[in-house]
Design brief:
CATH topology of the largest domain: Nucleotidyltransferase, domain 5
CATH class of the largest domain: Alpha Beta
Number of helices: 12
Order of helices and strands: HEEEHHEHEHEEEHHHHEHEHH
Oligomer: single chain
Number of strands: 10
Shape: globular
Length: 346
């Protein structure tokens, strides 16, 4: 009898449909419970925006509009469910590109209204952190999260599934933004992060002494605009002097300067907050040097390190569905007045 009841419960798990359109990925996922992904469809626009050297908001919005219904059909098909089977609708409400966010929100609200199912707006950074719950079933708060992406570089103390304290954030360029800008001046193209990471593997990270910016003594904030300027000044000086430019050395030295600051500040924060776990999240969490230096530093400091696979580092709807599930379990529900908040604070 117990076995039959367990099988019935597994067949009737709570289903969440999640939508993510904060930038240039159109993604829809279906989750069973909080961490079981039944589908996670991602339609990327990278090839489209390459020609412009970065994401063009109007073009991104237009392609979200063209793609979202097809992505929805594919997500439902892969999960082998129908819309009527869904119990909860989760959607990214910010931060992000306002036009892109509105496409996802309009779709989510239409589904929620027609199906009379609860609607949950999710903070994009909260979603990135929750990607680790999907990748590591045993992971539970509290822990220290380091969110590194094109738009964000945050150190967050995660005390519960829905309770976050931002200890530090970027004051200017995010790490991923700095990677993209340096890649552009080096002629590497877009997206810059993976290209810098790959080129740096053949370079000498000690070749150029780019400045590490730590700001005030007790600050966990970041500033990467200075190192970006440092790279530009170095390249211009080399050209004026007629000296050769070793792009691999520039990439490796720049990358090390950025990563060292992130790792050092995160380890210090974890120790100060008395956390025994560090969680990486965001697109730049896929960077090979960032992972390696964190692994070395965490081993030395006796901290456990978690990070998601590359597919869950990029923007995806599965992470939004996980976050929506926890918000719903805590009693959070939004109504049809839910709006897009491009500068939403965590």
């Amino acid at each position: 009898m117990e076995r039959i009841e367990e099988e019935m419960m597994s067949e009737n798990k709570f289903l969440t449909l999640a939508i993510e359109t904060s930038c240039d990925e159109t993604s829809i996922a279906v989750l069973s419970g909080d961490r079981e992904v039944l589908s996670n469809i991602i339609s990327s626009q990278i090839e489209i925006h390459k020609a412009y050297g970065g994401v063009v908001p109007e073009i991104a919005s237009r392609h979200h509009l063209d793609n979202i219904n097809l992505v929805l059909e594919e997500a439902l098909g892969e999960a082998k469910i129908k819309l009527k089977d869904v119990d909860l609708i989760g959607v990214t409400s910010g931060p992000g590109l306002v036009g892109a966010l509105l496409i996802g929100l309009a779709t989510a609200k239409a589904i929620a209204y027609a199906s009379r199912k609860p609607l949950i707006g999710v903070h994009h950074i909260m979603g990135h952190i929750c990607a680790n719950y999907i990748a590591h079933k045993e992971l539970e708060p509290p822990f220290l999260a380091v969110v590194v992406s094109g738009g964000h570089t945050n150190i967050v103390d995660v005390t519960g599934y829905n309770t976050y304290q931002v200890l530090g954030r970027t004051r200017d360029d995010a790490a991923g933004e700095a990677f993209d800008k340096v890649a552009r001046v080096l002629g590497l193209g877009y997206p810059g992060g993976p290209k810098i990471d790959e080129l740096a593997k053949s370079g000498n990270p000690q070749a150029i002494a780019f400045k590490r910016v730590y700001l005030e003594k007790d600050s966990y904030d970041f500033s990467f605009s200075g190192i970006k300027t440092g790279v530009l000044n170095y390249l211009n000086t080399q050209k004026l002097l007629g000296e050769p430019i070793q792009r691999a050395d520039v990439a490796a030295s720049f990358q090390l300067a950025v990563v060292e600051v992130i790792v050092n500040k995160a380890i210090k924060a974890a120790q100060e907050m008395k956390r025994d776990k560090i969680v990486l999240a965001g697109g730049v969490a896929a960077n090979s040097l960032l992972r390696r230096l964190f692994e070395e530093a965490c081993e030395k400091a006796d901290l456990k390190l978690y990070y998601p696979p590359p597919i869950l580092c990029t923007d995806n709807a599965a992470m939004i569905g996980c976050a929506a599930h926890y918000r719903y379990q805590a009693g959070f529900v939004d109504d049809m007045s839910l709006d897009a908040y491009p500068n939403l604070k965590l």
